[in-house]
C-alpha cells in the first residue's frame, strides 16, 4: 500500500499509489466499505471523510444510503479526461467552434495551451478536466477555484480587457463542449471572471475616423502622378476608394468579386465574412471611376487580383498571414501621409491602434451622421452592430441637445412661449431621439 494511512475517528484514509486518489475505508452495519474520495489532496480527503463519518453515524438508513450514493459520485460516474488530451478531444468534437478564419481557430488552441501551461506550474497535482471546478461535491461554492485564479493571473498581464475576455470565453467554450467529462457545472461561465470596460476609463484614445486633411494626403500619395512608389500601387488606390465609399471591412473589400458588382445599376453587393450579413450599396461617382480603371487589368473574378492573392497567403502551419501583410502595407501608407497610427497605453504591452484600415469604416459612419443620414440607413450599409454606429450618432445627438438648450437659454425679446415653440420645432427635426431629448420634449409640451 503506497503512502501513509491516516486514522480518523471512524475509518482510515489511504491510497494505493503515491500520486493516486485517496480512499476512505469504514464500517457500516458491520460491513466494511471503501470508496474513492476523488482527490489527491490530503486536506480535502480529510474533509470528505469527516462528512462521511457524520452521515454514517446517523440513525436513518435512508440518510446513509443517500450519502453513499453522493460519495460514489466523487469517484466519477462520468468518463474522465486528462488535461493533456483535452485539446485533441475538443478539436475533433462535432460541437467545437468553427470560425471562418484559421487565425481565430489557432487562437482557441493558443489560449487553451497557455492555460494548461499555467496550470502545470501553479497546480501540478491537477490531472483531469473534472478537477477544475468552483463548487464542492455538495454544489457549495468553494472559497478558491482554479478558473478564478487564472482570471486573476490574466488581469496582471499587460493585455487589453477585450483580449482578456476573449481568452476566458474561448477556454469557456472548450469546457462547455466537453461537459460530459465534468461532474459539476463549468466554472468558466462565472461572469466575474470577465473584465468590464470601466476598468479602462483612463484610456481616452480609441479607433478614430481619418481627419479630412490626412485622408486627402493618402489619396494624393496614391495618385498615379504622385511619384510615391509602393507594391501594386494601382490596386491599393482602388482598394482605398472601395473602403472609403462602402464602409466595408478590409477582407470583404480585398476579396470583392466582379460578379458582385453591377456597373449598369451601379450597385455593389457584399456578404460580410465576419457577420454573414448581406448588404447592397450604391456606387459613388468617385468609386465608379476607380472600378472602370480596375476593369482595364481584369484577369480573373477578383477586382484586386494581386492584392487578393497576397491576402490569401498562409504560413506553413496553415495560419493566415496575408491579411497582416496587406494591413502593414496600408499602415506604412498612412504613416507616409503623416498619420501616427498607434500610441502606447499604460497597462498594455501592445500599442493601441488609433488609425488603421478600419478607420475608413469609422469615417463612413461619421460622415453619415454629420450629413444627417438616418441611423437605420447607415446600419443597412455597414451591416454593423450598434457600437460603431452609436459612437457617432450619439455625438450628433449631443450637438442637437446643446442647440436645444441654447435655444431655451438665449436672451432675446421673444416671449417664453415663442422660445419654447422654437425649441419644440428644432426637436421635431431630430431622428432617433435619446431618452434625454424625449424627456425634454415632454417637459416643453406641458
Count up the helices.
17
* Parts with pLDDT < 50 across at least 5 consecutive residues: 66-76
What's the level 1 CATH class of the largest domain? Mainly Alpha
Largest sheet features: 4 strands, antiparallel
What is the N-to-C succession of helices and strands? Answer: EEEEHHHHHHHHHEEEHHHEEHHHHH
Output the keywords.
446 residues, alpha+beta, DNA polymerase, domain 1, hpI Integrase, Chain A, 4 domains, 4-stranded antiparallel sheet, 3-stranded antiparallel sheet, 9 strands, 49% helix
Topology:
Layout: E1 6-7, E2 12-14, E3 23-28, E4 31-36, H1 42-56, H2 61-74, H3 83-91, H4 102-122, H5 146-155, H6 161-177, H7 212-222, H8 233-246, H9 250-254, E5 261-262, E6 267-271, E7 278-282, H10 285-295, H11 305-311, H12 322-336, E8 342-343, E9 352-353, H13 359-370, H14 375-382, H15 386-409, H16 416-428, H17 435-445
Antiparallel strand pairs: 1-2, 2-3, 3-4, 5-6, 6-7, 8-9
Structural summary, described in words:
- The structure is a single chain.
- With 446 residues, the chain is of the alpha+beta class.
- The protein folds into 4 domains: 69 residues; 118 residues, DNA polymerase, domain 1; 155 residues, Intergrase catalytic core (hpI Integrase, Chain A), CATH 1.10.443; 61 residues.
- Helix content is 49%, strand content 7%.
- It contains 17 helices and 9 strands.
- The strands form 3 sheets. Strands 1-2-3-4 form a 4-stranded antiparallel β-sheet, covered by helices on one side. Strands 5-6-7 form a 3-stranded antiparallel β-sheet.
- The longest helix has 24 residues.
- The relative contact order is 0.07.
- About 2% of the residues have low confidence.
